[in-house]
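dude i think i finally got it to work??
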Amino acid sequence: MTETAVTSFDGLGLEPDLLQAIKEIGFEEPSPIQAESIPPLIEGYDVIGQAQTGTGKTAAFGLPMLQYLDPENDEVQAVVLTPTRELCIQVTQALRSYAEHLDIEIVAVFGGAPIKGQQAQLRAGAQVVVATVGRMMDLISRQSLVLTAARFVVLDEADEMLDLGFIEDVEKILRMCPSGRQTALFSATMPPPIKALAENYMYDPVTIKITPRKLTVDSVSQAYVEVPAKKKQEKLAEILKAERPEQAIIFCRTKIGASRLDRDLRNRGMSVKALHGDMSQGARDGVMISFKDGRVPLLVATDIAARGLDIEHVTHIINYDLPNSSETYVHRIGRTGRAGRTGRAITFATPDQIPDLKQIEKDAATTITAWETPEERIEHGRPPRRRERKGRKPASLDGDGVEDRDAEPVAEGNGAGPSDSGDGITKLYVNRGRKSGIGEDDLRWALNEGAVLSDDQIASIKVLDRFAFVEVASDAAEKTVERLDGSRLKGADIRVEVARR
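look at this
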């Protein structure tokens, strides 16, 4: 096998039907994991890919797998094993989009759904089965799934399968597949049991390691708290009271630790839900729905259970337990600071973990500073970029005489420009609404007093349950964002941004 350095999908050896689907999806050039994994997989090599979530690994194994299949053969020719239901669904959706122009049946089987329906789909014929480990074992035991023709096997997020205790079942499944199969293993980390699995069940694999992407430090401010283990719960309560997150994910290393912290926060009167592997799938789905809908502000979760969570308005990530790798740290804090918004990540470290924290800081090429209260951050922030107009209050909307100078300028992301209507009016987004006790009069007062706008500069105010929109004169939009973003209104922190089109 020769090394390849391609910048186009056309140079990866993919067939025209797959290239057409890729073009229709909108893929322009392969990601590093795709560029390095697709050629050896097409050539028939086993591949170990070490890459974090979000690097494009589904296409990295999915495109060569689909090219390998024989549409005339109705047997199960390929299987993809996933640790969670959420990932199973996500992978299935992606594979079906890649197979748009192929006569290939792709079936997803996972727990929490009626098994009879999945059995019927398998009887109707499937060349690819994407499965959670437990449901696949169940279907095999019922003789509804036969793997004697499965010559292409993918283990997706293998380290998560290990953490969930599925490795023994994974080995049983591999032993049921043909010995001459082609195997692809993808994992964010490579702990010893995963390395042993590769040694025992893969043949001369090509190993590909993708360096974690550099953190977007301008959208995630990062801090750490040095605290003894026995004081962590008390310190967390203090930080939550000071930070007042709109929504926060609090990461714990273990299921037991997540359950214990969930109970402690509840006992302190906080609205919180836990998410971990010991919960039933139905209970996990209920928690995720309530968190995504904004009904629960705090989520205590393990890394495994939080897979698949993509919440746009998470304002804070709190690493209650120090991540066990730099890759995990990057993955965790990447869940905030989405869609051009700023986010905040706070990491707890016991005194003996400080060297580990410094290593994460080095590996991630970022800066993690000691945690300060919002008031201290304001005091130490950059000086105001304006002079106070005589007789006007500063931008703190609680009337406490403190202006938040720590707010970042709004980033225009994803190719969407500001929503200037063309008649000199710009729409702004405010992340609070009626559920936070904020009404139209409150926002008008904030615009008048905090942003120093006159009534004729305010075109409209629309307040919804969870957020609001205000339209202001375009020449006053930047000033309004600068003065109000990060300030407080009716006891709540508010974020103000230029709305996207």
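The radius of gyration is 25 Å.
im so relieved honestly
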